[in-house]
């Protein structure tokens, strides 16, 4: 199942957020979209999920214009976990996960054993089976996010889009959630697209990385090719060192910043002089010159 | 967040349920069935109490004789023309108000978003009082005015709060603004009119089942025969909508269309109920949250309708029998219950991080 966009322009009212963008999610791979705040990455995800009508261009689901398909047909193929979904007060975990079966049900097809099986398997995959009769309100942030992912899984789609699924989670739960998504991708071959904030996690978990700035794609490809000191500077305006991640071997971004350059005593002594504070650019170029030497 | 505080309990659950698929589901279902059954039983019990007890007590055998067609002087009239329509109107109005409130509260994810808080009921009141005071309307015509008023105000609130998408808070604030204006209109109309007419209008404004008759039962049941299936149909997209617009769209809900249909249905439910019994205070507001506490959001519309029926029947029975010799309209009783509940809800809603 292919999902791609051709010359896609997305706008809220008159404000254009995504401009003339052509992109394809590689089937069966994990695509991660990164970029600074307000670069249009979440908007792109919403556009791909048919939540926004394009101002220009098209989104194609398996070659067909996604806006020509019925809402339900799309929902059977493409699942979306928005950034801030709302759990109704007092809802039980199993009930919330059951909502994922919505597109598979209808007037003449009520809840049946397929639905039970889908919910049970989603709960098992996300390791939330033992929470199933608990109230969503009483869960921890990490558990809650796993339950939301379980809902998206119960939808049993070939494509899954997730908008910042790790926001508000501590680092342990971030890893847990991303590992879980990787499991799904590997086990079921689900095509996954994730919008992420953390560049290092993005580089580690992505098969295909898309870096966006001002509504356009600046670079895309394998993390090893995309995550370079130059791209990081382009996309985030951040000076950094890129080193191999000691665990995964994927690129790891180490931001430079103005302070705390511990290995460079000269730099930190310069940092104490008022002249450096008054003109941070000098300090930065001093640092990079040092790095070059 | 509570998980950390009870690791032992969680470990026990894990051990108990590890082997089962969907642990606790059958348990949960049984619990719900018991609660819904209890609500239904309460409705039956309260109906029986209203039918049989009161200033004139009817025995159970007599009641069945009367229904079968026997003519017992006095009792027959009270049962057939007064108590049966009263109970039926109570059930229908309670159900309609309860479901109407739950439609808005669930869709906007805020217990304050019920038609009696956001001005829709006041729209009905202002229009009805105008009709009573200046056109001498009564009966069906009065009901028609109440409905038109409710719809007009709902439309105005929708249009004003729409900008972009219908954001819950804006709709509620605009609605509260409308309530204030319309209350002033009602007060103004009452001061400009003859004292006898004003008394009539006030009786209507209280909301009561006193003027229940078979005509009203017929009209109300016809209206609800159309609206009830609509509620059943729309309760499906509502299950998606209450997760937020994006999540709903992701699940395949047609967000804009479903929301508009839900608003229209909710307003019509509140409007036909108001037309039949007056704006019975707080039924729409109370039923949804109570049903949610009881059943954890399971079938929010249906369970709120049941709770609404219980409140109206109980309020009416209490109003008629609480103080010997004094018959209070149901709206007075529910008003007394509703105000503290509103305060409690406002005090606790944000503390628990729920209800917006």
TrEMBL record, chain A:
Keywords assigned by UniProt, alphabetized: ATP-binding, Cell membrane, Ion transport, Iron, Iron transport, Membrane, Nucleotide-binding, Transport
GO cellular component, one term: plasma membrane
Gene3D superfamilies membership: P-loop containing nucleotide triphosphate hydrolases
Spans annotated as Disordered: 259-282
Membrane-crossing residue ranges in chain numbering: none
Keyword Transport: yes
InterPro entries: AAA+_ATPase, ABC_transporter-like_ATP-bd, ABC_transporter-like_CS, P-loop_NTPase, Siderophore_ABC-ATPase
Pfam families (alphabetical): ABC_tran
Cell location: Cell membrane
Domain ABC transporter: from-to ranges: 3-239
GO biological processes: iron ion transport
Membrane topology label: Peripheral membrane protein
Single GO term (MF): ATP hydrolysis activity
Stated name of the protein: Iron complex transport system ATP-binding protein
Organism: Arthrobacter subterraneus
Automatic annotation (TrEMBL), chain B:
Kinase keyword on record: no
Gene Ontology BP annotations: siderophore-iron import into cell
SUPFAM superfamilies attached to this UniProt entry: ABC transporter involved in vitamin B12 uptake, BtuC (SSF81345)
Classification via Gene3D superfamilies: ABC transporter involved in vitamin B12 uptake, BtuC
Signal peptide: none
The keyword Metal-binding appears for this protein: no
GO cellular component: plasma membrane
Xref: InterPro entries: ABC_BtuC-like, ABC_transptr_permease_BtuC
A GO MF label: transmembrane transporter activity
Pfam families: FecCD
Protein name according to UniProt: Iron complex transport system permease protein
Originating organism: Arthrobacter subterraneus
